[in-house]
TrEMBL record:
Residues 11-223 form the Cytochrome b/b6 N-terminal region profile domain. This is Cytochrome b. It is a multi-pass membrane protein. Residues 238-370 form the Cytochrome b/b6 C-terminal region profile domain. The chain crosses the membrane at residues 40-68, 88-114, 126-146, 192-214, 257-279, 316-335, 347-369. The keyword Lipid metabolism does not apply. The keyword Cell inner membrane does not apply. Gene3D superfamilies: Cytochrome Bc1 Complex, Chain C (1.20.810.10). It is found in: Membrane. InterPro entries: Cyt_b/b6_C, Cyt_b/b6_C_sf, Cyt_b/b6_N, Cytb/b6-like_sf, Cytochrome_b_N_euk/bac, Di-haem_cyt_TM. Keywords: Electron transport, Heme, Iron, Membrane, Metal-binding, Respiratory chain, Transmembrane, Transmembrane helix, Transport.
Length: 370
């Protein structure tokens, strides 16, 4: 053991002399201070990083056996589930993990909205996070088709059909998404390329930019407690310091680790005891372009959009409402310019916030049972 410790120290000294890694680690771990009242909601970023890492690892393992061809895709997925050692575990971790990621993303965005952490000077942090959320949904959508099951085939048909409601260019967008008039070989090829290369590359770049923004601007202080006072917007760049705060390592790192463990336990619980919670029976039938299954519906996180298209008299109007809502969310930091972040001092915002959540849940439940 002493020999190993000496070798490790020699290796670290070698790198440290050339790159100064001890200073980098100290600046970002033990000397990096966070607000003393930082709460559990701040850990969701680390949870998402862990879950995205797990998706990346399981996705690579699935690629070893998956065949992106309509005549073999479904069979290759069945082989992964039934013949490859622990293939079922890898596939369930990947499929269920995508749903857990959406849950964590929604909770992360809701906590940022509730605490007003999107406000100046964090507009770019919010925008990059908002784009990450939409990109994650895009990854879910493109990955949905890859098993080439009845569910994935017809859900993709319905999803791409919606773009056809856009006047003038709608049909061209549908053909572009599908690579032809119908969902087929070209669609699978395009979605596969986007899912395993295009979107993950953009996602990695966006995550890097998002983390840079968070680290560069500094962690926002939770707007709670008698000591909190809203800060007037600064006209020059200022990194938010937290004198007297807690170090990221080990104090805050332990909290991160606890919440990450909770989400991993939740993921493992669903995988081992209810793996079909997010996977309907039609996902186990091969795609048949000539037989439309009854009551085809999207994943739970798209139900609100699915039902919105049915509520309005035309699909175009439904798409316009969805686009307006998403644009409003993206531009919120530029519209809500007040420095006040305390929820108790923002009754109008909190009322709209609660009503928005209730409407989202109601429309989603309506879409599930409609």
């Amino acid at each position: 053991m002493p020999v190993i410790k000496k070798l490790v120290k020699t290796a670290i000294d070698f790198v440290d002399v050339r790159l100064g890694i001890r200073d980098i680690l100290a600046d970002n771990l033990t000397k990096y201070l966070l607000p003393r009242n930082v709460n559990i909601w701040y850990t969701l970023g680390a949870v998402l990083m862990t879950l995205f890492g797990l998706q990346f690892a399981t996705g690579i393992l699935l690629l070893i056996y998956y065949v992106p061809n309509p005549s073999e895709a479904f069979g290759s997925v069945q082989a992964i589930m039934n013949e490859v050692p622990f293939g079922w575990l890898i596939r369930y971790l990947h499929a269920v993990g995508s749903n857990v990621i959406v849950i964590a993303l929604l909770l992360h965005m809701l906590s940022v909205l509730f605490m007003g952490a999107y406000k100046r000077p964090r507009e770019l942090t919010w925008l990059s996070g908002f784009l990450l959320f939409n990109l994650a949904l895009g990854l879910c959508l493109t990955g949905y088709l890859l098993p080439w099951s009845q569910l994935s085939f017809w859900a993709t048909t319905v999803a791409t059909d919606a773009a056809g409601a856009i006047p003038v260019i709608g049909d061209e967008i549908v053909r572009f998404l599908r690579g032809g008039a119908m969902v087929g070989d070209s669609t699978l090829g395009r979605f596969f390329a986007l899912h395993v290369m295009g979107l993950p590359l953009i996602l990695a770049l966006l995550i890097g930019f998002h983390l840079f923004c968070v680290r560069r601007v500094g962690i926002s202080k939770p707007p709670f407690g008698p000591d909190y006072q809203p800060q007037p917007p600064s006209q020059v760049f200022r990194h938010q310091e937290h004198p007297g705060g807690i170090p990221f390592f080990p104090n805050y790192f332990v909290k991160d680790l606890a919440v990450i463990s909770f989400f991993l336990a939740l993921l493992a619980g669903v995988v081992f005891f209810a793996p079909n919670l997010f996977i309907p029976p039609s996902a186990y039938e091969p795609a048949d372009p000539f037989v439309t299954p009854p009551h085809i519906k999207p994943e739970w996180y798209f139900l609100w959009a699915y039902q919105t298209l049915k509520i309005f008299p035309s699909e175009f109007l439904g798409l316009a409402v969805q686009g307006a809502f998403m644009t409003f969310l993206a531009l919120l930091p530029f519209l809500d310019r007040g420095p006040e972040r305390r929820p108790a001092r923002r009754p109008l915002f909190v009322t709209c916030y609660i009503l928005g959540i209730l409407v989202f849940l109601a429309i989603s439940i309506w879409g599930h049972y409609s």
